[in-house]
Amino acid sequence: MIPILKLPERSLRAVAVATACILGAAGAALADDEIMAAPEFDAGDRRGGLLDEIVFATEPDVGKVAGLIEDGSYQLFAQGITNQTIFQRIRESERIEHDLSYGSSVELTFNPSGPEFESGELNPFNIPEIREAMNWLVDRRHIAEEIYGGLARPRYMVVGTATPDYAALAGEAREIELRYQPDRRRAEEVIGREMEALGAEKRGGRWHYEGAPVTLRVLIRNDDIRRQVGDYVANRLEDIGFAVERMYRDAEESSRIWIGGDPEAGQWHVYTGSWVSTVVSRDTATNFDFYYTPRGRAEPLWQAYDPAPEFDEISERLSRGDYGDLEERAEMMARALDLSMRDSTRVWLVDQIQVGPRSADLGVSVDLAGGVRGSQLWPLTVHRGDAPGGEARFAMPSVLTEPWNPVAGTNWLFDRMVVRAIEDSAFMPDPFTGLYRPQRIAEAELTVETGAPVSRTLDWLTLEQEDEIAVPDDAWIAWDESAGRFLSVEEAGEDGLTARTRSRIVFEDDYFDRRWHDGTTVSPADMLISYALTFSRADPDSPIFDPGHVPAFESFERHFRGLRILSTDPLTVEVYSDQITPDAETIVARRAPGTLPWHVMALAIKAEEDGELAFSSDQADRLGAEWLSLVSGPSMSVLDRMRERAVEQEHLPFPELLGEHVDAEEIAARYDAIAQWRSERGHYQIGDGPYYLHSVYPVQGALVLRHFADFPDRADKWLDFTQPPIPALELDGPMMVAEGEDARFDIAVTSGGAPYPAEDIEAAEFLLFDGDGALMERGTAESRGDGHWEVVLSAEDVAALGRGANSLEVVVTSRHVAMPVFASFAFSTVPEGTQKLQ
Amino acid sequence: MAEMTGQDRAGERAPAPRGWLRDAQLVGAFVLRRVFALMVTVLIGVYLTIVVANMGGQVDELREIQIRSDVSEAVRADPEIPAEERGEMVERRVQMERERLNLDQPFILRSVDYLRRAMLLDLGRAEQMHSDLGSRQVYAIITERLPATILLFGTANMLVFFASIFAALGLSRRYGSLTDRTVIGLAPSSAAPGWFYGIFLILVFAFIVPILPAGGMVAVPPPESPWAYALSVMRHMVLPVAAMFISSIFISIYSWRTFFLIHSSEDYVEMARAKGLPSGMIERRYILRPTLPPIITSFLLMLIGLWSGAIILEQVFNWPGLGTLLFQAIGHRDTPVIIGGVVIFAYLLALTVFLLDFLYAILDPRVRVGFEGGER
C-alpha cells in the first residue's frame, strides 16, 4: 500500500516570516526586523507578467550593490551576496530589502587512507572514530555566528537543512544534532584513545608517532571565507596536541591535491570543501552513496572510501531507490544518517546563507535553495509597488554568457534565469518545497507498478497502482530517421513491452490557442518537433547527428518506454517510463512534453545540416561551425539565409511527422511572422513566456524584456509564492516542575504575527532531554487550534527525568516550506513541595 | 638604432655598388635582416607564451581535474540520469571533452600546432570562451572588445600624452617656477594606479554627488538614437578617463619636462637663444625636432599599449575592454584566446619597431643605412 498524502490547497498570501526564527541559534545575528511581508497586490485583469519592462545589465561588482539600488540604478541583484559588510550595509538601508537562500554548504573532507601514508606518516583520519570525534571538536555555532557573521546556519548531516528530507526527518535530525554538540573533552578523549591504539603517544602535550610529531596538513581554500574556517579547524587540532601545517591554496591548486592527487601519497589530511545546489533538492537519498562510497566518483579520493558494510549497503539501496515504500525509505534514511555520522569522512559544518538584495518596492518569488536566480517563478511574480506596470532593472554578473538556443544552448545560471521569463513551462516547481505544480495542465494521472515507492502530495494528479503496466502497441517507442517519423511498439517489434510508470497528462483546453511571441499560434507540431529533435540528434544516420547528445539520449532511452498522443484537443498524452522518483508530481512533470517553435527550429536544423551552425557547443567544435545563438552574432546572418531558402522551398522539417498538423498556409504564415520579428527585434529568440526579448546589446552587456500581452494567465496567478511562509516558534512553560506533577508547554506557531493554520503544519514533534543530554522521550505535540500547540509531559515522564536541569526541543515542519523550525526550552525538575519560580 | 649601425660594416667587406641600386640593396638587405630578426623574436615570444600559459603542459592536469569535476557535477545535477548510470556517463563525457580539447595529444605536439597557427595569424577557435555576440572565433572575441578599449584608453592616453608634452614644453621654459615645483610635488601621486582614483571618483561622483554613472559603457538600456548613444558613452567615459588622467598626468609631465630640460641646455639651443630667435621657433626647431624620435617612439608604444587594456580599471568601471577579456581567458586557461591576444600584440610591436627604424631615418638626418666611412 502506498501512503498517499493529500495536501489541501490554500492561499499563502499575506503570510509573513520572521527569518530569525528559522535560523535557530545560528541566526541570532539576524534580528527580528527581518520580517518580510508578502504584498497586498491588485493585479486587476492584467495577464502575464506584472511589469512592463525588465532590463538586465552586467554589474559584476557586488561592492556597489547597496549604492546602486539606493540610487535607483537597479532594483535587484541576481547574484547572491555572502559578504558580511555588504549585508550589514543592505540591512541598514531603508530602501533595500533582501531575501535569503540556502543552497551552498561547507564541510571538512578527510583523507581516509592509511593509517599510514606511503611515506610512513600517520593519518589519524583513517580511523572512523577519530573522524567522528571531529564533530565534537568543532563548534558549528561559532563558525556560523562568528566566522560567517550569521550568514550561515549549523549543519551536521549530509542532508541539507533546507530540503524536504531534512524536514521529514526533523526529529531524527535534531536528535543527531544534539548528540554532536561541541564537546572538546569528549573529542579529546576519543581521539586520545584511538591515537594510542594506533601506536602514537602524547609527549609534552603533543602527539608523536614513531618519534616524530604527528603533523596534520590542513588544505585551506584561500579564495573565500573558508580561509577562516580552515584556520579555526587548524587551531582546534593544534589545541588537542597535533602539529598542523596550513596549506593555503586556491581552487585550482587545491583541486590538484585533494581531488587530483593520490590520497595515499599523504599530501593532505583535511580539506575545507564546499558544495552548491541551485534548486530545492526533493530527493537526497542518493547523497550517502555520492559522498561516502567509492561509487560517488571515479577520483582517487572516492576510491579510498571504505564505508562500513551496513552503511555501504544502505547507501547503495537508497541510491537505487531500492525500498518498498516511503516508510521504509524514511527508516533507511534515518539509519543512514546515523551511520554517516559514525563514518564522517566528511564533517558538515554550515549551510551558507546567500543574501539576495532588492529594492524595497520590488517583490519576487525566490527559491529557497537557489535564490532569485534559481527561481522558476520569478518572471510570474516580480512586481513593483502595489499595482502592475512599470520597469525594473536587474544586475547580473554576466549577461549572454553563452549562446542561447532551446535545444543545447547556454546552461549558465544567469542566462537560464532570463530565459525562464521568455519560455513558458507545463509545470512550475514550488520555490519553497521543490514540489511541482501545474501551469498548463488540467489534470494528470500517474499509474505505477504495484509496490513502487511513490507518493502524491498535491491534488492536481491522481496516483494509481497496477500489477503490470503494458505499453500499447501504437505507442511510439523508436525513431526511423530515413522515414522521419516514430515507430510504434508494434513496428519496432517490441510487443509485450511493459513500463513501471504511466503518466497520462491532460493539458488545458486552450493549450493550442496560445501564441508565440511572433504572433503565431502554438500547434501540436511545436510539441512533436521537440521529440523529433531528441531522437534525430542521437541517430548516426541523421544529418544533425550529434555524438555529444548520445550519452544523455541513451540514458533517456533506457527508461523511456513509449509515448502516445491520445488527443490534441485537449492535448492528452501518455508517457511510459521505467524511471521512478519518490514524488508522483516529479515523475509526471518530468514526462510532460514541451514545445519549441518549429519554424525557428527548421532554420536551425537546416543550418546544422549545412555545417554552418550547431545546436551544441560540442557539435560546433566538431564541425568547426558557430554554436547556434538565436539572439545575436554570426548565427543571425546564417539564419537569415536559411529563412530565405525555407520560404522558397516552403520547408517543413520532419514532414512525415509534422505534416499532419501543418498546412502550406501555416508554413508561409510562420516564416512571414519570424521574418517580421527578425526585422523588428533583430533576433530569432521567441518563446511563449510572460515576457518577450525586446532588444539585445551583447557587447554592452544588456538586454531588455517586455511584457507579452498574449500570455494566457492572470498576472497574479503565482503571487502567493512571493514569500516563503516559514513558521516562527515561541515555546513557553514552567521553569520548574515538581516530581509527581505533569507539565504543559505551549508552542505558539505564527507567520508574520498571524497564527499558523493547524492544517498547514506537517508535524510538530518534541524531544525531551535530561540533564546529561540523554534523550528521554520523544513524541508529538497536540494541536490546540491554529497557531497553538501543546506538549504535555505526564508525571511519569517528569519523574523519569530525575532532578535537575532538562531541555525540551520542539521541531515544527510546515507543509509549505521544506525547512523545519526549532525551539528549545530549559526547565528544572524539583522535589515535591519546592517553591517554584514563575 | 644599434641594429642599423651594425649594417655599416657590411659595406666595408665588399665594394658597394654606386647610386640608387646600392641604396636599394642596402635597404633591402636591412629590411630582410630586420624582418627576420623580428619574426624570430615574435616566434620566441609567442612560444614562450604558449609554454607559460600551459605551465609547460601542467595545465593539462588541472584541466583534466576541472573537466572531471564539471562533468561529474553536471551529471549528478541531472535528475534524468539514474544514480547507477552516472559513472559511465561521466566517463563518456569526460572522454569527449578530452578529445574536443585535444588533451589526448601530448602537449609538445599541441604547442607546435598552436605556434604554427599563431605565426600564420590563424587565431582559430576558443576552447571555452565566446564573444559577447556568441562567436567562438578568437578573432571575433578579440575584435569585439577592441573598439571599447581603443575608445577609452585611446582617449585617456591621447589626452595624457599631448597634455603632458605641451605642459612639459611650457614648464621646461619656466624651470623652478611655482607651477614647475607644484608639478614636481604632485608627480608621486602617480604611484597610485588609475583604478585607485577610480574608486574615489565613483564614490564621490556616482554616489555622494550622483551626477555621473558608476560604471558601464552606456546607459541601460542603451539609447536608440545614435546621438543620445554617443552622449551616453561620453558620459560613461568621464570618470574612467579622469581616473587614468589623474594617475598619469603629473608623472608624465615631470618625465617629459626633464627630458626637454636636458635638450634645452644643448649647445645648439643656447646658440639659438644667443642669436635671439623667438622662443616658439626654438621650441619647434631646436628642441622638438631633435627630440621627435623618442617622442614618436613613446607615442607609438603608447598606441600599441592600448592592446592590453587595464584589467583592474576595466573591472572597477565595468568597461567591456580587452584587459578584462584577457584576464578571463587566463582564468579559463583558454590558450587560443591568450595566444591570440599575445600574438597580435607581438606583431603590432614588431611592426612598430620596424616602422620606427624608418621613421628615425626620416625624422633624424643623422640616421642612415650603411654609408661608407661609418657615417650614421
Counted beta strands of chain B: 0
Number of separate strands of chain A = 39
Structural class of chain A: alpha+beta
CATH architecture of the domain at 138-332 in chain B: Orthogonal Bundle
Percent of residues of chain B in helical segments? over 70%
Largest sheet of chain B: none
N-to-C CA distance of chain B: 10 Å
Please write the CATH class name of the domain at 138-332 in chain B.
Mainly Alpha
Quaternary structure of the protein: heterodimer
Helix count, DSSP H or I runs of 4 or more residues of chain A? 25
**How many whole angstroms does the radius of gyration of chain A measure?**
29 Å
Radius of gyration of chain B: 27 Å
User: Judging from the principal axes of the Cα atoms, what is the shape of chain B?
Assistant: flat
Describe the structure.
The complex is a heterodimer of chains A (838) and B (376). Chain A has 838 residues and is α+β, with helices and mostly antiparallel strands. Among the domains of chain A are: 103-279 and 345-351, Dipeptide-binding Protein, domain 3; 438-681, no CATH class; 728-830, Immunoglobulin-like (Sandwich), CATH 2.60.40. In chain A, helix 9 (226-239) links the parallel strand 8 (215-221) and strand 9. In chain A, 55% of the residues are buried. Chain B is an all-alpha fold. Chain B has a domain at 138-332: Orthogonal Bundle (MetI-like fold), CATH 1.10.3720. Chain B has 14 helices and no strands. Chain B has helices spanning 2-13, 19-53, 59-77, 83-100, 107-119, 138-173, 178-186, 194-208, 226-264, 267-275, 279-305, 311-316, 322-332, 335-363. The longest helix of chain B has 39 residues, at 226-264. Chain B is flat and about 95 Å long. The model of chain B is unreliable at 1-12 and 372-376 (pLDDT under 50). Chains A and B meet through strand 1, helix 10, helix 18, helix 21 and strand 27 of A and helix 3, helix 4, helix 6 and helix 8 of B.
